[in-house]
Write a structure and sequence with these properties.
CATH superfamily of the domain at 154-277 and 346-369 in chain B: Periplasmic binding protein-like II
Number of domains of chain A: 1
Distance between the termini of chain A: 27 Å
Order of helices and strands of chain B: HHEHEHEHEEHEHHEHEHEHHHEH
Strand content of chain A: under 5%
CATH topology of the domain at 154-277 and 346-369 in chain B: D-Maltodextrin-Binding Protein, domain 2
Radius of gyration of chain B: 22 Å
Shape of chain A: globular
Largest sheet of chain B: 10 strands, mixed
Helix content of chain B: 40-55%
Helix content of chain A: over 70%
CATH topology of chain A: MetI-like fold
CATH architecture of chain A: Orthogonal Bundle
Largest sheet of chain A: none
Oligomer: heterodimer
CATH superfamily of chain A: MetI-like
CATH architecture of the domain at 154-277 and 346-369 in chain B: 3-Layer(aba) Sandwich
Structural class of chain B: alpha/beta
Radius of gyration of chain A: 23 Å
Chain lengths: 278, 370
């Protein structure tokens, strides 16, 4: 058992991180909060605008809807991917990890532009589908919600796969064998044994993807249609064109509050903590 | 002598009349040991070195534009005056506005677009241009502003893909661009309310001279007619990609980007009819530490030989028309201030947009969401 002195010394280790958080997170958030109620004059008018006017409500709803859909698709694609990675042989596992990682190391802007080229009416994907005769007219894969989701799901997939991978690799194969031994067919065994055990990973992945999506900017701007405006785009416009820090801060605070709410509700409803070890 | 006091001394000196002031400054600086007497190179005894030991921070947009400004303005200015030009960019409007609010800007010269100049100069964000230092007599009057020095002129042009519409059978007016029956396929506009409303009104038959003040309702009604055939671009590279790959047949492109695509062999061309000119200005943030150096830099930018260098490099147009004598023939037809092109377009009304931008930008978002 460590002595009191060592424990005190260990406490010193958190000082750098705490200091960083104070400077890089607490202070800016506090500053934003202050601006949202003081710019240009004191009061709640920025919140009244953000939550009272149709365009801001529509954009907030867009943001939640796009983030939600991105999370669902990431889970649908990410879960089987993580499962395969966990159960693959060492060589295949390494290759799969790199397949997920390499796009992760590429700039978001570059990847978004790559999607522009791939998805457009005369792009690679449409050319291929037209060529093999699967479709007669080019599919509208871009400048609409479909384009936004394709781009965001691809970019955010690693945030789903890695927490899942980490949790799934710690699930003992013995549980599924035991379930089979006791007569459970594969599907019920998966849903009643494996899935509940993997829930912390699912929650972490979903939370990460959803929260990162909320602040997305470049991808919806480039791949989306006229209507696919997310909050970050409005914030950027308000600051860039008008130096309107008050309204921008209010919109940012609403996003932050929404995120905190989702976090709390998830925790209460599922009674599981997201796996922070992931 | 500290840096600050040196700056103050220099500032003081620059405010006095020409040579006497400069000489005194040089003496003061040399006495302080901050500057050594550099060799006096040309006719104007002090020109080559009167700013040696001084510096300024130049901030502009990224990419080839920045490179061209460094080559056309910054490097030769350094060579001519001895001042060091530090690149502070890239320009970011949010960063600039935060800096201006704090009152302690770290940038001395910043490149801003005309509408932003109009909006922010009213807020008192920029230093007033000193007419005793900056000589704007040779600059076209429509590009002279109390709080900025025009750096380049560019324009919003009708662009088209030459595979879809070969030159000669291409859209020649905004009415054509809005005519989906005559010119089928997708079209593109910029995702900004200005000057999109102008384009819609031109398409609806309003004459260029009578555009302002804009008939906003009429403009949005006209935009409704191409709603389903419209792709909005956010970045200039995106516009080049849309035209180059033939995703759109026609629409809006900036003249410089049309030129760039054309030069690179993409099937893209531009039309000059009904173009709308716009200007990038250099401004000095209020309270900039090296405002006096910046002011001399501004003066340097108004000179024809320097503007010609910029045009030859990137096909952005001069505001001092004497520059045309030094611009390559092949580049001239692409320049917005070339008389043949300027006569077929108008200059955007930045005062109108200064007064109406905020409500109209909101309405633009509303329209997009509808």
């Amino acid at each position: 058992m460590p002595s009191t002195v060592t424990r005190d010394r260990r406490a010193l280790l958190v000082i750098p991180a705490t200091a960083l958080l104070l400077v890089a997170f607490v202070y800016p958030v506090f500053w934003l909060l202050l601006r949202s109620v003081s710019d240009p004059v004191w009061g709640a008018h920025n919140y009244a605008t953000a939550l009272g006017e149709v365009i801001y409500l529509k954009v907030l709803w867009n943001t939640v809807a796009i983030s939600g859909a991105t999370t669902v698709f990431c889970l649908l694609f990410g879960y089987p991917m993580a499962y395969t990675m966990v159960h693959a042989g060492p060589a295949a596992k390494r290759i799969l990890i790199y397949i997920v990682l390499i796009p992760f190391w590429t700039s978001i802007l570059v990847r978004t532009f790559a999607w522009l080229v791939l998805l457009q009416p005369k792009g690679l994907i449409n050319d291929m589908l037209l060529g093999i005769g699967l479709i007669a007219e080019p599919l509208e894969l871009i400048y609409n919600r479909t384009g936004v989701l394709i781009g965001m799901v691809q970019i955010l997939l690693p945030f789903m796969v890695f927490p899942l991978f980490s949790v799934l690799s710690r699930i003992d194969d013995g549980y599924m064998k035991a379930a089979a031994n006791l007569g459970a067919p594969p599907l019920p065994a998966f849903f009643r044994v494996y899935l509940p055990l993997s829930l912390p990973g699912v929650l972490t992945g979903c939370m990460l993807v959803f929260i990162i999506s909320l602040g997305y900017f470049i991808t919806p701007a480039l791949l989306g249609g006229r209507r696919d405006i997310m909050v970050a785009q409005l914030i950027q416009e308000q600051i860039d064109l008008f130096g309107n820090w008050g309204l921008s801060a209010a919109l940012a605070m609403i996003l932050l509050a929404g995120t905190a709410l989702i976090f709390t509700v998830t925790y209460k409803v599922f009674g599981v903590k997201p796996d922070i070890r992931a | 002598m500290t840096h600050t006091t040196l700056n103050q001394a220099a500032h003081h000196a620059a405010n006095e009349t020409a040579n006497a002031g400069r000489r005194r400054f040089l003496k003061a600086a040399a006495a302080a040991g901050a500057a050594t007497a550099a060799p006096l190179l040309c006719g104007n005894a002090l020109a080559a070195s009167h700013l040696s030991g001084r510096h300024m921070v130049h901030t502009t947009w990224g990419g080839v534009y920045r490179d061209a400004q460094i080559a056309a303005y910054c490097d030769p200015f350094s060579a001519a005056t001895g001042a060091e030009v530090i690149q502070g960019g890239p320009m970011n409007a949010a960063k600039l506005s935060a800096m201006l609010e704090s009152g302690k800007p770290i940038w001395d010269v910043v490149d801003v677009v005309d509408v932003q100049l109009a909006v922010d100069s009213r807020k008192g964000y920029f230093e007033k241009i000193d007419p005793t230092v900056v000589d704007v007599n040779e600059v076209e009057p429509e590009y002279v502003h109390d709080y900025g020095v025009a750096n380049i002129v560019w324009s919003y042009n009708i662009g088209y893909n030459t595979d879809a519409f070969p030159t000669g059978r291409h859209p020649r007016s905004w009415a054509d661009v809005f005519n989906v029956a005559k010119f089928p396929g997708k079209r593109t506009l910029r995702d900004r309310v200005f000057p999109t409303l102008e384009h819609a009104l031109l398409a609806d038959g309003v004459a260029m001279e009578s555009l302002y003040p804009l008939d906003v309702d009429r403009a949005f009604a006209k935009l409704d007619t191409i709603k389903d055939d419209l792709i909005l671009w956010k970045s200039n590279s995106e516009s080049q990609q849309l035209f180059g790959d033939g995703v759109v047949g026609c629409g809006l492109i900036l003249n410089g980007r049309g030129y760039d695509s054309h030069q690179k062999g993409a099937p893209v061309n531009i039309e000059w009819n009904q173009n709308i000119r716009s200007v990038d200005y250099y401004v000095i943030p209020k309270g900039a530490a090296n405002a006096d150096v910046a002011m001399q830099f501004m003066n340097y930018v108004t000179k024809p030989e320097n503007q010609a260098r910029m045009a030859n490099r990137l096909a952005y147009a001069p505001t001092n028309l004497d520059a045309f004598e030094m611009i390559e023939e092949a580049v001239k037809p692409w320049l917005s201030t070339h008389p043949d092109n300027a006569s077929r377009g108008i200059l955007i009304d930045i005062d109108y947009w200064r007064d109406n931008l905020e409500p109209l930008a909101k309405r633009w978002t509303e329209w997009k969401l509808s």
